[in-house]
Amino acid sequence: MATLFSPLRRLYLTLYNFTVLFGWLQVLYLVLKTLKELGHEHVYTAAEKPLLYAQTAAALEILHGLVGLVRSPITATLPQIGSRLFLVWGILWSFPETRTHLLVSSLLISWSITEIIRYSFFGFKEAFGSAPSWLLWLRYSTFLILYPTGISSEVGLIYIALPFIKASEKYCIRMPNTWNSSFDYFYAAILVLGIYVPGSPHMYKYMLVQRKKALSKPKSE
Amino acid sequence: MKLTLVSRSGREIVKGGIQLSDSATVADLQEAIYKRIKKHPSRQRLTLPVQPGSKERPVVLNYKKSLNDYTSGNSETLTLVFKDLGPQVSYRTLFFFEYLGPLLLYPVFYYLPVYQYFGYKGERVIQPVQTYALYYWCFHYAKRILETFFVHRFSHATSPLSNVFRNCAYYWCFGSYIAYYVNHPIIYPVSDLQMKIGFGFGILCQVSNFYCHIILRNLRGPAGEGGYQIPRGFLFNIVTCANYTTEIYQWLGFNIATQTIAGYLFLAVATFIMTNWALAKHRRLKKLFDGKEGRPRYPRRWVILPPFL
């Protein structure tokens, strides 16, 4: 079984990682180009397509962990990818009013650099069995800066979207109904902001532990 | 007997070790440790050292046993690994605070004018289903608190203090979340017949659940001794964890009568948690009562939710 599936597994994961890497390369290129030529108000529109594809494809990573294709635990992937999907689809895509903000640029730059490094690191690992040590170092070091910038952009954009969420009543279910239930997207967004308070330092600490593990070990493994 | 206590990293915990008589029990040792380093016996975890690199689980010392049971031959020294489990509370305390929240918070939504703060002005007409639900809910949690003090027999085990905060957050938040919808001024009540079936079935399950708890109580001695026994009688002849079965079905009854997503969500989470406990208990009982060497064989039974599991 393992011998039959492991080349297939490697082929699939290599393809997956390099495909998504290509998407994030496009995002970074389009963001920087637009930023230089047109200004930050146009960044989202220019990068929307590859951004939506690349970030949505990340949902597969939760699946990879679940079926045992990769070792990353769901407790680490689900909050990371879940919050990204919420930002992309639940905020930027759903509320166009937020798209022209300067924070979109800092968000997409932080995300795309992180992801370019991450996907090339895993792509290399799957394709060649190991990644160059400088890539390993980047994988476990850039987050030191890009996590704080990315997370503050995320929090800032959710906060900016709040009045638009409240006014639009989008995705809301109101009582009365036979199932005696309601859903208010505005309060859900505030709840998400609340989760960021303990969640962000937790993820940062988790990455610091990963960094220590990955970089302290000699290359022979 | 000379005892050396080390941490898991090998550091000595009690300087110079502890000298005890040869007939001393583990409890005596725990008392001696308490005198020296002021860590209450409930938070002390004592294990036999394992070989480095070994994947085996270390043997945890039982406070009732004699220290001699853990020495090889008639050795005069014993090295033990000490771990501080942090502050502990009894299960009675844990359960009491878990259940107190829902018992007190639910009536707040029924009696007090909270909905005006959620934007619902004007006169609130209370539906019959809301009054019955209040009695049903409060009866349920009062029952659980009274059972905690007068029915359940707990083993020596304790729970970390941090679990109190975690479990209370779970019970108190979910309780308020359900209470908000069931007591809502614009609730859409189910038909009279459905309500009666729901509450009737639920009460029947609560009474059965109480009877299950009485059966479980009689498996243990007054001080919680007796260890694991095969539960028999009433629904236990069919299901290993009939106490969970009846608990799950009584929530189903409440939900049939009140019909809220919040309630069904709680039912789903509770079922998931209790199923995990039930699977563990079923496995443990089957392993303990394997029918070999004179031990009784565990009978064929459902685990928690007949006819599915």
Automatic annotation (TrEMBL), chain A:
Catalytic activity: a very-long-chain (3R)-3-hydroxyacyl-CoA = a very-long-chain (2E)-enoyl-CoA + H2O
EC number(s) recorded for this UniProt protein: 4.2.1.134
Gene Ontology terms, MF aspect: very-long-chain (3R)-3-hydroxyacyl-CoA dehydratase activity
Subcellular localization, as worded in the UniProt entry: Endoplasmic reticulum membrane; Membrane
Transmembrane segments: 12-32, 143-165, 185-204
Protein's pathway: Lipid metabolism; fatty acid biosynthesis
Membrane topology listed for this record: Multi-pass membrane protein
Gene Ontology BP, a term: sphingolipid biosynthetic process
Matching InterPro entries: Tyr_Pase-like_PTPLA
One cellular-component annotation, GO: endoplasmic reticulum membrane
Record keyword Lipid metabolism present: yes
UniProt KW keywords: Endoplasmic reticulum, Fatty acid biosynthesis, Fatty acid metabolism, Lipid biosynthesis, Lipid metabolism, Lyase, Membrane, Transmembrane, Transmembrane helix
UniProt similarity note: Belongs to the very long-chain fatty acids dehydratase HACD family.
PANTHER family found in the cross-reference section: VERY-LONG-CHAIN (3R)-3-HYDROXYACYL-COA DEHYDRATASE
Described function: Catalyzes the third of the four reactions of the long-chain fatty acids elongation cycle. This endoplasmic reticulum-bound enzymatic process, allows the addition of two carbons to the chain of long- and very long-chain fatty acids/VLCFAs per cycle. This enzyme catalyzes the dehydration of the 3-hydroxyacyl-CoA intermediate into trans-2,3-enoyl-CoA, within each cycle of fatty acid elongation. Thereby, it participates to the production of VLCFAs of different chain lengths that are involved in multiple biological processes as precursors of membrane lipids and lipid mediators.
Protein name per UniProt: Very-long-chain (3R)-3-hydroxyacyl-CoA dehydratase
Biological classification of the source: Eukaryota, Viridiplantae, Streptophyta, Embryophyta, Tracheophyta
Automatic annotation (TrEMBL), chain B:
InterPro entries: 3-oxo-5_a-steroid_4-DH_C (IPR001104), SRD5A/TECR (IPR039357), Ubiquitin-like_domsf (IPR029071)
Domain 3-oxo-5-alpha-steroid 4-dehydrogenase C-terminal: 158-308
Membrane topology: Multi-pass membrane protein
Location(s), subcellular: Endoplasmic reticulum membrane
Gene Ontology MF, one: 3-oxo-5-alpha-steroid 4-dehydrogenase activity
Membrane-crossing residue ranges in chain numbering: 93-112, 169-190, 197-216, 261-279
Keyword Metal-binding: no
UniProt entry tagged with the keyword Membrane: yes
The entry's keywords: Lipid biosynthesis, Lipid metabolism, Membrane, NADP, Oxidoreductase, Transmembrane, Transmembrane helix
Pfam families on file: Steroid_dh
GO cellular component: endoplasmic reticulum membrane
Ranges in coiled-coil conformation: none
EC main group: oxidoreductase
Record EC number: 1.3.99.5
Family note: Belongs to the steroid 5-alpha reductase family.
Protein name, as recorded: Steroid 5-alpha reductase
